[in-house]
Amino acid sequence: MTDTPVAYTSWADVPPGLMTRTVLGQLDLPRTPGGPPRGVVATRNFRGRDTEVDLYAVAESVPTGASMAQLLAARTRTGAPDTRRCTDCGARPERPCTPHEDGVVLCGCCGHIRHLRTAQRQAAGQRAGACERAAQLLADERLAVVHVQLTERGTTPGGTRRPPSAARVVALGPQGQPLCDVTMRLVGPRAAGIPDGACSPEDAAPLLQVLADRVLLEWEGGALAPVSSALRAAGLPGPFPTGYGARRALWALALTWRADISPRSRSLRPVISPGRADRMLWLLQQIAADHQPTRSS
Question: Which domain of life is it from (predicted)?
């Protein structure tokens, strides 16, 4: 075993064979380190400051000097909660269970399940709002579901990302009616990698004008930014609306609607882009279909 402690960036990365001195002493049959630290984990102390905690190998630890009588006295101490049996599953883990506000003590597994259920309830409570907003968007005749596909050109020999050569802008109305399908070059006409059929900003601007008075639903904010930049560089006004409520992001609605909690992090799993305007519209329709109007709606 190496003498150099292994560094861990979070408690989730620490293997079960390493424990802190405190945890070793809290075991059902307490132990103490029998060798040097074999790891160190980055954490925060009770003041919220960054610190590091030494980790010791369980295999190298040795029993403490506590006698059986002392262990029994500590277990039966008056007023102390029994943290050696999980209230929910009855497990008797070597590490003490964690007391909770409602008086139960839970093992790590049951405590994790409780936190997961709490996260799920909180996520489910937000779903109705996303469904209502999706239904409102679909009911707006000004809606334009916009997908932008960039033509990437890789990187330079030095590793610098080349700017995209073109952008295909596809927009659909709330009933799926086509609004525009325009491929516009974003670079000069002699640049490499321009797809066949890509038009100039001057030719694309009138075709994109159909989006001027629309409520734009992009997958995420900024999808149209390369197109706007190319139009400005050509001395043309951007036709895309700005201001509060003029641009919406579908990913936020999808994230809230799916409410898919990661069992590891207890946070919402990232959502994957639909990749096309028709799929974006179908996703929006699915979200809106779960809307349950109230009498006041």
Answer: Bacteria
How high does pLDDT run on average in the chain? Answer: 92
d(CA 217, CA 226): 16
Contacts of 63 (CB under 8 A, 6+ apart): 29, 30, 31, 32
Q: In what order do the strands lie in the sheet with 6-8?
A: 6-8, 39-44, 50-57, 18-19
Regarding whether 73 and 133 lie in a shared domain, the answer is no
Q: Is residue 8 in some structural domain? A: yes
What does the block give as tokens for 51? 């610190």
Residue 296 has pLDDT above 70, yes or no: no
Share of the chain above pLDDT 70, in %: 97
Q: The CATH number of the domain where 249 resides is what?
A: 3.30.420
Residues contacting 189, CB < 8 A, separation 6+ = 200
* Residue 98 domain flag: no
- The pTM (predicted TM-score) of the whole model is 0.81
